[in-house]
Amino acid sequence: MPGIVEARPCIRRKIWKTLLMKHKTGFMKKMKVYFLCALLFSAAFTKGQTYGIVIKGGHVIDARNNINELMDVAIQDGKIARVAKNIDTSLARQVVDARGMYVTPGLIDIHAHVFAGTEPDHEDSNGFDALAPDGHTFRSGVTTVVDCGGPGWKDFATFKKNIIDESRTRVLAFLNIVGGGMRGVKWEQDFDDMDPKKAAETALANKEYIVGFKLAHVEAESWIPTERVVEAGRLANMPVIIDFGGSDDHPPLSIEKLFADYLRPGDIYTHVFTELKRRDPIVDLTTRKLKPFVIPAQRKGIIFDVGFGGGSFNFDQAIPAMKAGFFPNTMGTDLHRGSVNGAMKNQLNVLSTFLALGMDIPAVISRSTWAPAQAIRREELGHLSVGAIADVAILGVRKGNFGFRDVAGKKITGAQRFECEMTIKGGRIVYDLNAIASPRKR
């Protein structure tokens, strides 16, 4: 019988077509098998690399989500991916051993001075008294810092360029009602430079970074500065934070009047435990009792911040107030050159001081995470919800006999002190004190 090549052309074409169809069908079946195998392999590979980081075995405290127990935390692509018990560490490229430690949202310091610079006569506004943030934040578990009145509307652009844009720490700001910012007491007395409209316009044009307005250090016996900063807050629909300055040359302005007539729910009164002649204190200096209008003001919605600083925290105020049932809402440090090496030191020392005063660990963590996030209206921060920005602090608690001072030099002792083991900002490890993270898998 003649071969295929010898067949007539029409027969030859039919034979080749039949063979080609059989070959094509077989090829498609093989391709389907290969495709399914590839999918299965890809899924297995992905499953093996589900998380960038798993934090294993820590005690999670998350006030927003009412978590206060041993849990694992998984992070992927800069976000919280899962919070659960017994997350499989084989799913992670990197594992953090947090056994015996507390795992919290990244801390938020609501009151700091970070507009550092070299301009003479500029103090906390591009001057020598402010401190660049990154050297003081991550080592204390802080991932977000709010500059408290350093820039005004005239120099906010400089602040953004030099500090916000150049810092790894997330930097936000309360804009000073004084256009020239916190240059010093001399410049902060200029009522003509307190322009609510200009301040509000600047805040609204930069609302990604500006969270409200600051009034500080006014010496005059006048309510005009208070009226102007609150007007800026009203125009921009943002909170204000008040540091009552005062002067020893006249009686202090009444904080009862401030709380009743000027501050709105959500506005902030800082340096709440200050005892100075020129300021009206919350604890009566004669009776040593908490003044009766303070707790109702807090219930009204006024937020009370510690603002420890270099001269603004006294045990003689804090201890009677707390015994009367009054506790601060937020734990601002008032970080600056004059406080960082004094009684204040850093955010964790402030929290440890309040542990020594009788507050518990969940209470102080809440007041430095979720509470300040709410106060500055940045509710994407301060918690470990799935999908939230992966800002995390991992804190050890040392046991022993520790001393804590106030700005007057008085001392109390405590049995616990916080220590930052690790800080994670946006899903990246930015501080690891004792190398508790495993090497990253490639």
The ordered H/E elements are HEEEEEEEHEHEHEHEHEHHHHEEE
**What name does the CATH topology of the largest domain carry?**
TIM Barrel
Task: Kindly state the number of beta strands.
Answer: 15
CATH class of the largest domain: Alpha Beta
Low-pLDDT stretches: 1-7, 33-47
**How many domains comprise the coordinates?**
2
Give the structural class: alpha/beta
CATH superfamily of the largest domain: Metal-dependent hydrolases
Overall pLDDT confidence: 91
Helix segment tally = 10
Kindly state the percentage of residues in helix. 25-40%
CATH architecture level-2 label of the largest domain: Alpha-Beta Barrel
Distance between the termini: 64 Å
Instruction: Tell me the strand percentage band.
Output: 15-25%
- Provide the gyration radius in Å: 30 Å
Description of the molecule:
The structure is a single chain. The strands form 2 sheets. Strands 1, 2, 3, 4, 5, 13, 14 and 15 form an 8-stranded mixed β-sheet that branches. The protein has a 7-stranded parallel β-sheet with strand order 6-7-8-9-10-11-12. The chain has helices at residues 9-48, 156-164, 196-205, 224-236, 255-262, 294-300, 315-323, 347-356, 361-366, 370-375; strands at 51-62, 67-76, 79-84, 92-97, 102-105, 107-112, 142-148, 170-176, 210-216, 240-243, 268-269, 303-304, 392-405, 411-425, 428-432. By secondary structure, the protein is an alpha/beta fold. It has 2 domains: 4-47; 104-425, TIM Barrel. The chain contains 10 helices and 15 strands.
